[in-house]
Structure prediction request, 214 residues.
Amino acid sequence: MFHKEGYQIIVISLLITSSLIISFEYSINKVEIKLLLKLLCFIFFVLILQFFRNPKRNVKLNDKSILSPADGKIVIIKEVFEKEFYKEKRLQVSIFMSPFNVHVTRYPVGGEIIFSKYHPGKYLFAWHPKSSELNERTSVVIKNKAFGNILYRQIAGALARRIVNYASEGNKIKQGEESGFIKFGSRLDIFLPLKTKVNVSMNQMVKGGVSRIV
Prediction:
């Protein structure tokens, strides 16, 4: 299954790779070079397909847990001053999403969207310390009965050039539902109360809608 955000790119990529393969067949005489170029086109198309894959997830709803909002690797667990919404110190947990990860983002908790804002910006590498403040990003806050206001932030990376955000203020949402998509490499931050005991560690791989952050 592929994500709807990838349909157009998949079709365009298929047309381009098919056209190139056909052109190689008639324009190149050397068999080895022809096969190599065809193979490269095939690999390119397979990479596009795997990037936009959207595997089904068996989300187990749990009001007492915060689920990972994305697939990837835990790269930051630290106290920071969050100045956009909370304006106070929070525990930041960051997930780096490589081009090989599933790039669907999901709501970490259920509740009501009370804040959703898009920020244009730069395209620093997603692991850069300042990417959370300087890169293109969206900030979303969910009002949850058990945990209060939980903020997560989609951050574009060096390759990413479009953030898709489905969260609109006033919407009632369920834990684990799709909240958006980030194209071609990115990062996702989630901000928690300072004394939160997280269920993850540095460099741990997590799955969106499955792995427990708290």
Observations:
- The chain has a mean pLDDT of 87.
- The chain has two domains: 4-51, 72-206.
- DSSP finds three helices and eleven strands in the chain.
- The longest helix spans residues 7-27.
